[in-house]
Structure prediction request, 100 residues.
Amino acid sequence: MAVTVSSFVVRTSLRVPGLGILALPAAPLPDWLVAAELFTPLALRLHRPGQPPLALRATVEEVNQAPLLPARALLLDADLDELPPSSHLSLESIVENELF
Prediction:
C-alpha cells in the first residue's frame, strides 16, 4: 500500500446520511485536489490496511470549520463506515461529461 505525494491521505472522515462519506485530508494536499474545481466528479481508488483496493466515485467539496479557513475535502459515493486514518485515495481519472 504505497502512499505517494499524489495520494489523498485521510486525516478523518464522517458519514453524511444520504450522501456518503466526507473525507478530510491530512497535509499536504495532492496537486489534483488543489487544481480541481468544486463539485468535480472523480474516479478514485481507496486503499485501506488489510483490504483490497476499492474503486469508487467522489466529488470535490469545500468544508468550513470555524475558526479555520475553508478546506478541500472529498465526498465519497460509498456505502462504508468511517475510514481508518491510515487510508488513502489515489486518483484514477476526472470524470468528464457524466452525471453521478
Helices lie at 31-35. The chain has a mean pLDDT of 87. The two ends are 28 Å apart (CA to CA).
